Amino acid sequence: MPPKTEKEPPNVVDLASSDDEGGARTAAAANKVSTITSLTEMPQTSGAITTFVLPSEEALESRSFWKAGNYAVGPTSKSFMLQDTLEHARVHPKFLHSNATSHKWAFGAIAELMDNAVDEIHHGATFIKIDKVDVLKDNSPALLFQDDGGGMNPELIRKCMSLGYSSKKSNTTIGQYGNGFKTSTMRLGADVIVFSRSTSGSKATQSVGLLSYTFLRRTGQDDVIVPMIDFDISGHWAEPIVYSSQEDWSSNLKTILEWSPFSSKEELLLQFDDIGPHGTKIVIYNLWLNDEGIYELAFDDDDEDIRLRDEALRGATKLHKKTVELQSHISYRIRYSLRAYASMLYLRKFNNFQIILRGKPVEQFNIADELKYLKVVTYKPQLAAGSKEYTVETTIGFIKEAPNLAVAGFNVYHKNRLIRPFWKVTADGSSKGNGVVGVLEADFIEPAHDKQDFERSSLFVRLENRLKQMVMDFWFVSFHTLLFYCHSIFAVQNDNSETFVKGGKGEKPLSFHWLSASRCAFGKYEEAITCSSA
Predict the structure, then answer these.
(1) 248 secondary structure, DSSP code
(2) Structural contact between residues 412 and 420, judged by C-beta atoms closer than 8 angstroms
């Protein structure tokens, strides 16, 4: 049976930029065009690709993410020029890298991909799997993300692999800028291949798309080319969907096989076997290295976790006991352990959705559930005139390890997603507020594009000032209560050289000195308050 021929998807107008031009030109170009995509499906001809081979020293540097934008631009391949299409504004491949630098932290990039799966809960998603897989071609590690959401039809996968498009306008969805897939995947590795299956009515399709920075660099492209192939699976077999000619479809397939981890069409199709009737699988490969030439992500330290190698190694040397205790707290572990970070990433616990990391579900954790002497403080931000009144409830209390552990700060969420973990609003060096942790959801302020901070608006500044006052109020009212009931009672010798050790029922020492709140808890014994027993 001949392949299905369908009308080609709408032509794509690209947004031009490079490392030097940044986002300003992108925004300007966006105002000039009416189409909504920015990376193109590969409109190939039968001509051969002109290959520009990078010098060896550049190839070595390119494996480190922060150096990957430094490469010579070779001769342009003319075989991919668009013919008889709309005017085409180019996106230089370097823009993929410069755009991805918005993610300073690799876990922030992983969180973006998790957000996409969580947003698919509205389309029936019940899980996202995150795991390490091996690339058979070169025995290198790759990063797998897979969900059972609604999947993407040929039109949607093209929008997914474009810049600046987003169909997520709901008040409940996390993604909104339409840029997260590109920035996150390119931050984690040089290349990504996407498999997606979708069913709409009686029609079922599956699509494969390749976004390969390696391909673009190695072939000397000065434009971002995204080879894609689609299949109609409404019948009993996968039937290629051809938009222009069988030759073009085959050329796209050939490019995907040459630059992806898969060597044959049969291998590609096997990737759909565990997706089910709908869902998406993302494989990120050629993962970035750190400055020492080692993979940035560590898979071998813990079979049930993915770790940031550089952060994890900082705690590997022999440390003071207090430092070890601090580094074992989740406020520190989220810096290097994906399992710890994922456990706190969403404020409300899912009813029918799991994050499965390396084969084991992540247990969601809200630190507010174990705070001591907690209270709920209501805050009403001053919004613009005519805006709907908004009320923020902040849960604040002492961590269970207080006063022995100097952890403090607010976990600030936006639309259920953690944006700023353990945000310390008090002055550095001050012991006031140590041990005080708060949790709040601030949907009235906008997160930055990488979702690791908030835009510094006047609303944000006022919130910061209110949280500072909240900490001080709670500290002065509640610390003596904590001190009286803390597990270990600190004391100094009394006048009769009797030492009060650990208090228990029935013990009535003659006298002892309570160490003051701000000194006792954190090892500073300069100040004391004398108390007498009954």
Answers:
(1) H
(2) yes
